[in-house]
Amino acid sequence: MEFIKEEGKIYCEDNNGKIIAEITYEDMKDGTYNINHTFVDESLRGQGIAQKLVEEVIKEIKNKNGKITATCTYAKRYLEKNNME
Question: pTM of the predicted model, to two decimals?
């Protein structure tokens, strides 16, 4: 699966251009980035796509030397489980 990266958003589309998986994050202006939304289409659920999205965002934030927090419940659980928050 190929992810498209834009500022504050990582996603993938189906062949028709419909977003089928997405994660968004915002720069809190103090060096902290908040992961605030994760979406995975029903057709992709159970394949670990949400986890891959979170891991991609973490890489992006670390490349910016930022701190990570999350208000998205999925991302928050991931960070807690991996001792990252």
Answer: 0.92
Residue 4 to residues 31, 60, 72, 77, Cα–Cα distance (Å): 23, 12, 20, 24
CATH number of 4-81, picked from 3.40.50.880, 3.40.630.30, 1.20.1070.10, 3.40.50.2300: 3.40.630.30
Q: Which of 13, 4, 15, 10 is nearest to 58 (CA)?
A: 10
Q: For residue range 16-28, what is the model confidence (pLDDT) as tens digits?
A: 999 999 999 999 9
Handedness of CA 10, 15, 18, 21 (dihedral sign): negative
Amino acid at 23: I
Separation between Cα atoms, residue 83 and residue 72, nearest integer Å: 16
